[in-house]
């Protein structure tokens, strides 16, 4: 061992000529007299011996000094073999001939330097060794940067793909399974929008740190882009091993409980694809893991799913629906069903939510959770929204003309409509065209949609509210809306998310949360509507808490226009 503070160099000389080895060793010993150096020299007479020493070395060899005239290799063959077996070890070529062509070819083949044996002295040796090491370190850093995600330090997409290809080649030889686990952070955009991009970057770095420090040493982690990550898990005995790793990842990430000292409820959705069951190449394995992840996101978030062959059919069906949606946007396949909202005290209908439906040629009905995202992706959400608004206005106009009772109808507003500065004016124009009072149209907007573009949303809502359109915040309690945002937004009502309602009376914490929302709403001048009411017990607890309106299957499912209008004017929907 060298003294503290000295640079330690381990050097291997490969030269068939004992005199050549002696010259090199002598020069290196003299270089070792440098007080900043601690040099260890080993020498062998053949390429085979040199390769054995490189394999068996207790610590990494820093530099190889290689003669081109060896008993088992001639010319640059020895250099290429060492570079192939040890690509990260710098090699300095030694030659008895000062041949420019050979020197040029040696450097092009990866040599760190080319030295003429006749001109060797300690200073030349030391300079060449340090240059070769520095050059190799620089190359290694460039390679690292080219393969690393700069924010998280994990593999980037390209490097992860290459690592997956190598792992599959090994899996074919070992006959062991290999899995790709893909996951992303649920509602990451909300976190980014509420807490800022720096906090979002800090969260991504924290996720990377959890992965890097807690998975198996054989596993590889990559950031595929945005908030999407992937883990490559080789050497598995079964698909069950992949599920165990995925569950560990979920626990690791979900345990990140705060950003900048603010509590967050972080969840991830994950998908697993396993070789050889799901696919035989890296591209297919990653694609299938991605499909499985989106199956998790489309279902109950915060879960993990395996890829199965049915997902290919699902993707093809989604593409077909997307094409059909564009064709049907001007037809009569889209329509509204209405779900009544009742007075919590009397059970009488006081409003309704218009819920979009899409009828297929075989009379199958597709619900908005599936086709609204497709409409947004296809760029037809604005004409679809206008079409549904026209249907609601037609229903209200017909009731008014027939002197029958009618109540306000609420319509959901999509994310892209919220971001559109011209949305409010288009809505007002449509209401005026049908000559219905603006006070009988409400719009429902989620917390997520509000925070994605606060200023544009605020401007749209303010204009609509001045005109008389009611503004309700839907699914309240599931996002990150700040109190200052609630104070500033022009709202009429908060709709309490069904996740609180379904557990009320069962989970002790639900009732106090609902009480807090009701009290806050009352002080801010909002009414409250509870969604997802399915039992008499839930309705009674919510009524006692002071919720204004109730909506759910306990009173009525969404129904066609004729059934809905028949409910109007009844003293109560509760038997």
What are its keywords?
575 residues, alpha/beta, Rossmann fold, TIM Barrel, 3 domains, 8-stranded mixed barrel, elongated, disordered N terminus
Secondary structure: elements and pairs:
Layout: E1 7-14, H1 18-31, E2 37-44, H2 47-56, E3 63-67, E4 69-70, E5 73-74, H3 77-85, E6 91-95, H4 100-108, E7 113-116, H5 122-147, H6 157-174, E8 177-185, H7 188-195, H8 197-214, E9 220-225, E10 228-236, H9 239-254, E11 258-259, E12 262-263, E13 268-275, H10 282-298, E14 304-306, H11 310-328, E15 334-343, E16 349-359, E17 365-366, H12 368-378, H13 381-401, E18 409-412, H14 415-419, H15 423-434, E19 441-446, H16 447-452, H17 454-467, E20 470-476, H18 483-488, E21 493-496, H19 498-501, H20 510-524, E22 527-530, H21 536-545, E23 549-550, H22 561-567
Parallel strand pairs: 1-2, 1-3, 3-6, 6-7, 13-14, 16-18, 18-19, 19-20, 20-21, 21-22, 22-23
Antiparallel strand pairs: 4-5, 8-10, 8-13, 9-10, 11-12, 15-16, 15-23, 16-17
Give the spatial strand order of the biggest sheet: 15-16-18-19-20-21-22-23
Structural class designation: alpha/beta
How many domains make up the coordinates? 3
> Radius of gyration in whole Å, from Cα?
35 Å
CATH homologous superfamily identity of the largest domain: EAL domain
State which percent range the strand residues make up: 15-25%
Q: What is the strand tally?
A: 23
Shape estimate: elongated
The name of the CATH architecture of the largest domain is: Alpha-Beta Barrel
CATH topology grouping of the largest domain: TIM Barrel
């Amino acid at each position: 061992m060298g003294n503290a503070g000295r640079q330690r160099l381990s050097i291997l000389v490969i030269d068939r000529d004992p005199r050549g080895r002696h010259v090199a060793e002598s020069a290196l010993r003299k270089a070792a007299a440098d007080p900043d150096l601690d040099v260890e020299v080993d020498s062998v007479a053949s390429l085979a011996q040199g390769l054995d020493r490189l394999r068996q070395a207790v610590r990494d060899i820093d530099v190889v000094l290689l003669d081109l005239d060896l008993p088992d290799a001639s010319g640059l063959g020895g250099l290429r073999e060492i570079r192939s077996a040890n690509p990260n070890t710098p090699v300095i070529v030694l030659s008895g001939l000062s041949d420019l062509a050979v020197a040029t070819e040696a450097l092009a083949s990866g040599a760190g330097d080319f030295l003429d044996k006749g001109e060797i002295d300690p200073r030349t040796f030391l300079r060449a060794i340090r240059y070769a090491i520095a050059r190799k370190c620089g190359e290694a850093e460039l390679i690292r940067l080219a393969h690393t995600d700069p924010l998280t330090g994990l593999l980037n997409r390209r490097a992860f793909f290459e690592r997956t290809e190598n792992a599959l080649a090994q899996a074919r030889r070992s006959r062991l399974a290999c899995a790709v686990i893909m996951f992303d952070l649920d509602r990451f955009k909300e976190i980014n929008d509420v807490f800022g991009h720096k906090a979002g970057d800090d969260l991504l770095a924290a996720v990377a740190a959890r992965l890097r420090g807690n998975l198996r040493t054989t596993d590889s982690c990559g950031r595929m882009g945005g908030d999407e990550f992937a883990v490559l898990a080789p050497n598995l005995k079964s698909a069950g091993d992949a599920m165990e790793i995925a569950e560990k990842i979920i626990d690791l990430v979900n345990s990140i409980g705060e950003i900048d000292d603010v509590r967050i409820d972080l969840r991830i959705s994950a998908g697993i694809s396993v070789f050889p069951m799901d696919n035989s190449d890296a591209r297919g394995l990653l694609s299938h893991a991605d499909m499985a992840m989106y199956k998790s996101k489309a279902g109950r978030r915060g879960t993990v799913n395996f890829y199965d062959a049915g997902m290919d059919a699902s993707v093809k069906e989604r593409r077909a629906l997307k094409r059909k949606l564009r064709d049907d946007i001007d037809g009569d396949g889209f329509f509204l069903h209405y779900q009544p909202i009742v007075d919590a005290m009397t059970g009488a209908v006081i409003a309704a939510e218009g819920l979009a439906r899409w009828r297929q040629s075989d009379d199958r009905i597709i619900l908005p959770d599936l086709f609204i995202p497709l409409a947004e992706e296809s760029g037809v959400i604005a004409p679809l929204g206008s079409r549904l608004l026209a249907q609601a206005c037609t229903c209200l106009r017909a009731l008014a003309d027939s002197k029958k009772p009618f109540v306000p109808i609420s319509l959901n507003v999509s994310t892209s409509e919220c971001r559109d500065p011209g949305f409010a004016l288009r809505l007002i124009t449509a209401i005026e065209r049908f000559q219905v009072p603006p006070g009988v149209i409400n719009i429902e907007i989620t917390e997520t949609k509000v925070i994605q573009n606060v200023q544009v949303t605020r401007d749209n809502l303010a204009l609509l509210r001045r005109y008389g359109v009611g503004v309700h915040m839907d699914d309240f309690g599931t996002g990150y809306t700040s109190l200052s945002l609630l104070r500033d937004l022009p709202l009429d009502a908060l709709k309490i998310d069904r996740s609180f309602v379904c557990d009320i009376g069962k989970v002790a914490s639900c009732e106090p949360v609902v009480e807090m929302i009701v009290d806050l709403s009352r002080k801010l001048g909002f009414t409250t509507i509870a969604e997802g009411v399915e039992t008499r017990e839930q309705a009674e607890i919510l009524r006692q808490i002071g919720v204004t309106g109730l909506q759910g299957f306990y009173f009525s499912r969404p129904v066609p226009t004729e059934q809905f209008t028949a409910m109007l004017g009844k003293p109560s929907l509760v038997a």
